[in-house]
Amino acid sequence: MGIVSLLILGLIAGALAKWLLPGDDPGGILVTMLIGVVGALLGGFLAGALFGADPLGGFFELSTWVTAVAGSIVLLVLYRVITRRRRTV
């Protein structure tokens, strides 16, 4: 999968993660979508390392989307925990 398709996948995965986990995030939708790009990379890396899969092999494969959205959700939750901790301190 090329760089452009990976970026598009990550942006959409970030938007889906935001849709699945609604709430007030510092930084808004742009930061959430950037988290999606990093989450897509993280999800693909972890799926490859843990299961020996090639989840970022094709843009239209279900495993690609599942790992990208799962990685985005994990990073979005971590982002919320970190920013919430800074606001309360």
Description:
The protein is mainly α. Helices cover 78% and strands 0% of the residues. It has helices at 3-20, 28-51, 62-88. α1 (3-20) crosses α3. It is globular, with a radius of gyration of 13 Å. The N and C termini lie far apart (42 Å).
How are the SSEs placed, and which strands pair?
Elements: H1 3-20, H2 28-51, H3 62-88
Helix pairs in contact: 1-2, 1-3, 2-3
The total count of helices amounts to 3
Strand content: under 5%
User: Unreliable stretches, pLDDT < 50, 5 or more residues?
Assistant: none
> Which secondary-structure class do the elements indicate?
mainly alpha
Summarize the structure.
With 89 residues, the protein is mainly α.
Task: Give keywords.
89 residues, mainly alpha
